[in-house]
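Researcher: Can you fold this with zinc ion in place?
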Amino acid sequence: MAAKIRRRGSDRYNAIYQAAAKLPVEYLRCRIRGHKWSDEETVDPLTLNESRVWVDCERCEAQRYQDWTLRGQQKGSAIIYPKGYLIADLGVLETADRDIMRAVYLDIAKAHQK
Ligand SMILES: [Zn+2]
């Protein structure tokens, strides 16, 4: 099955493009490359058997935690995003939407290359 592509000029394309173009470039970079998790972590005890392990993104300041047992089983995890990282009002982004973010980033990268 062919991947869905958003038509340039469609309402959804324009909405995603405009919202992505307004994001700080660090946020856009993390959305495209993935987060740049620090090597340093903070460990908070939750119970005798379970700890919450925190790492920060060095680029966008997102924070991730994972809850690990003493035996290393992962019981839970979450990422806390900085304000404005998630684009409000656009709902869950599909693959085709993320393609548009990459197109925005490419335009920015090209503009900064000279
Ligand atoms: Zn990040």
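Model: Folded with zinc ion in place. The mean pLDDT is 91.
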